[in-house]
Write a structure and sequence with these properties.
It contains nine helices and seven strands, in the order ααβαβαββαβααβααβ. It is of the alpha/beta class. The chain is globular and about 55 Å long. It starts with 25 loop residues before the first helix and ends with a strand.
Length: 296
């Protein structure tokens, strides 16, 4: 499955690896999660069919709390705990909860996900882990920690995998056709290096249902959710495309050839009519896969 790591949103167990400072990325993380909220709302509705009345929900690797607060809205009877290692992100999550009127049943817990879910006061009926697990060196051990934090009959919803986002046609009229596909290849190589540099890194076959069952859970379902914003996109989607391509240029541009770097620079130049700031053919299409498992 693809690792679309321009979207490093909502889930940050550590911020000292691979030179990733998630606190500095806060505006981008919020921008991405807010734009993708319709997708997450569809996930929440699907989860509600399986866990209709959870009393306690844990967002494992919550980031700035966009999805945490969305879950609070989708499950109005539930208490929500946002767990993350980065205090500025938790502070923003608390601010968001207050602004949205859910602070009375919203709390935060600062913890590394390497050891599970930290010191929870009560076991969780639903644990949501959105692209946070792949930032932990030993993913199987972290999953075991998540499982220990579940109440009997509780559900773990793991968002990992899917398809890389697409923003542009294959042939954009500048540079060689297929730029995004080549960026994907470089992105995968970056991801492999990032995983290898994590403390205690363990190589795992990314068979998420098998990993879930290996820690004692029962795999219940897998579903992929689509976000499809066709051209012409609204301005908030165009702004995200700019941010996403800027993030990719900042992280992987040195691994692209000179022609592709030049094309990427043109795409990000607001004074260039061929840039994503102005192009009428910019769109946003992505797919996120969620695996649900249950504790007996």
């Amino acid at each position: 499955m693809a690792h679309d790591h321009d979207q490093t949103h909502e889930g940050h167990p550590r911020h000292d690896h691979a030179h990733m400072d998630f606190a500095k990325m806060l505006p981008y993380l919020e921008q991405e999660a807010e734009l993708f909220s319709p997708l997450y709302a569809s996930v929440a509705a699907w989860l509600r069919e399986r866990q209709p009345e959870p009393e306690m929900i844990v967002d494992a690797g919550s980031g700035p709390g966009v999805i945490s607060c969305l879950l609070a809205g989708a499950f109005p009877q539930a208490r929500v705990v946002a767990v993350d290692a980065v205090e500025p992100l938790l502070e923003r999550a608390r601010e968001r909860a207050g602004r949205l009127g859910v602070a009375d049943r919203f709390s935060t817990l600062r913890a590394e996900l390497d050891d599970g879910l930290g010191d929870l006061e009560y076991p969780a009926d639903l644990v949501w882990a959105s692209r946070s697990l792949h930032h932990v060196g030993d993913q199987r051990a972290a999953l075991a920690g998540f499982a220990r934090g579940l109440a009997p009959g509780g559900a773990l919803a793991l968002l990992e995998g899917g398809l890389p986002s697409r923003f542009l046609p294959r042939d954009i009229g500048i540079g060689r056709p297929g730029l995004q596909s080549r960026i994907d290849v470089v992105q995968e190589e970056w991801f492999t290096r990032m995983r290898a540099e994590l403390p205690g890194a363990v190589t795992e076959t990314e068979d998420w249902p098998a990993l879930l069952t290996s820690v004692g859970l029962r795999h219940a379902a897998t579903r992929t959710f689509l976000l499809d914003l066709p051209a012409p996109v609204p301005e908030e989607a165009r702004a995200f495309v700019v941010s996403s391509l800027t993030h990719r240029r900042d992280t992987i541009a040195e691994s692209l050839d000179a022609d592709d770097r030049a094309t990427l620079d043109r795409l990000l130049d607001p004074d260039d009519k061929a840039s994503v700031h102005h192009r009428p053919d910019v769109f946003l299409l992505t797919a996120h896969t969620v695996h649900v498992a249950l504790r007996a």
